[in-house]
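[09:14] KT: can someone run the structure on this one? pasting the chain below
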Amino acid sequence: MKKKTIKDIDISGKTVFIRVDFNVPVKNGKVEDDTRIRGALPTIRYATEQGAKVVLASHLGRPIKDKKKAEEKGMPYDEAKYTLRPVAEQLSQLLGSDVEFEGGDIESQMADLAPGSVLMRENLRLNAGEEKNDPEFAELLSRGIDVYVNDAFGTAHRAHASTEGISHHIDTCVAGLL
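[09:31] RB: done, structure tokens below
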């Protein structure tokens, strides 16, 4: 059975959620290895060239579990080390155009996106609903989205809100080019 890819559908003018795997090493606010980011570029570029409004989502590390471990040991916990902001900055450089970063009202940010532009959501795993495949979190991720694209091959086997749960709320779900 042949699975549809992003190239098999019309995405022009649509808001496209692309689940990417940007779980990359970040040290002192800088991406140390951007191999995974580069791997997603063909899908992202294709979507922007088609005039889609692109919303990217990924996880970075295990912030919820690390927070629990830190609390158990009475150690400090630094949530800032789990932000995807440095990844968005690296992606901006690679694309040669600005990548907007989630902040404030995400639905307004998505509505304000211009065709061909990119918005990166904050680390999905900062919300406990991601790994639990929480239906409410999956529905929240799907709001305002026309097409779901899974370009996160390394996480496709996980039943998380952004890889499995979201697909129950969006009619058009396809594979990315990765």
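[09:33] KT: thanks! The two ends are 18 Å apart (CA to CA).
[09:34] RB: yep, looked fine to me
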